[in-house]
Amino acid sequence: MKESRVTIKIPRPLYNRIGTVIEGSGFSSPTDFIVFVLRDILGGAAPDPAQETFSAEELNGIRQKLKNLGYL
Amino acid sequence: MIKAHGGRLVNRIPEGKERETLEALAPSLPTIRLNERELSDFEMIAVGAMSPLEGFMNREDYLSVLDLKRLAKGLPWTIPVVLSWKEGGAEIGEGEKVALLGPDDEILGVMEIEEKYSVDKSQEASKVLLTTDDAHPGVRYLDTITDSYLGGPIHMLKRPGHHRFENFRLDPRETRVLFKAKGWDTVVAFQTRNPIHRAHEYLQKCALETVDGLLVHPLVGETQKGDIPAEIRMDCYKVLFDNYYPSTRTALSIFPAAMRYAGPREAVFHALLRKNYGCSHFIVGRDHAGVGNYYGTYDAHYIFREFDRYEIDITPMFFDHSFFCKKCGNMASQKTCPHGSEDHVFLSGTKVRAMLAEGTKPPAEFTRPEVADLLMKFYQSGKE
Fold this sequence. Notes:
Chain A has about 70 residues and is mainly alpha-helical. Chain A has helices at about 10-20, 30-45, 50, 55-70. Helix content of chain B is about 35%, strand content about 15%.
């Protein structure tokens, strides 16, 4: 199934520059390149795993347990 | 903080509607009673200690781990984590759900059986344990289970009952919060199934000099006869922590895994699991997870070369044989001491056991006196 897409506007000079940069690189269009770069950046900025699955209540519960056991 | 292996800390403890549905369904399902190793694997999978595993391995992962030391999708993983079908148990088909039972037949969880597959256990022993010798405890374990494995995701409805070390049981989510609260960005984990002698203390403190915190994480799951009982070891660790370890930089918590005695492969496995607990570094000493003479002294160091450091992510810290050197006047290792073995205070395990059983304290350069007292009491009780 093809992913649905949205349009994002970027400055034309930047778009043209990307077109020059990707010549002969294997990227078929500036869009492909931009999607690749954004995915790479977002992948590297994944949420902190210590935080991602906690509600404030859970976090307080864990902190309390750690205090009770003498770790904190 | 370091990410869990595979990028996400797994949580297989259902909540809300899903939990209600599974709890209602579980009593009507065919059952499988977990053995001691499977029980600890089950709990560790559920709390994320074995991330990215969400259940017991299917055939594709199992074979890939045996042949390539990786999960089927390519992520490094060196030890099979499997559930064996039980002789005399209910026939279970693929696509069915089963209830997983603890030792007292209480329902602990539900597993979705994606696959039932036959294995060649001698091949598993050769590839994972590097031997098929029945004297190896891992081979002996394989002899106790069937050659039919069940793969699929699990859901933990109830934690197995624990009657030991309740104050030292922390899940990966909890150690991660602990490290954050302590302000430790980098944490080194120390795996052990033995009492800590001065040499181990030296490695830990050398490692701690370069990171923010130290997690001493002794294995208390199933071990072989002849290993010092976990209760005695914990008493030794506690006395060391009380007297020689700074509380602002160190923490003691248990590692509830079963011991496989798989040497080098288990060293990588232990490192990956500590990454899930939030540790950035892992100490690998001599003959890590070894038994008898099945593995070379530093094989557990060399195996890490088979992986790209970025895919392992946790940093292994390799240490040579260490000892107290009378000429240097301090703890040292073969890497840092220029003197001969005649200047080193080193005792074999057999010699130490004999001394303790006779009521002779090993030198303080070898074992802290407080630890020696505890071990002497144990050996003289005749309970070993």
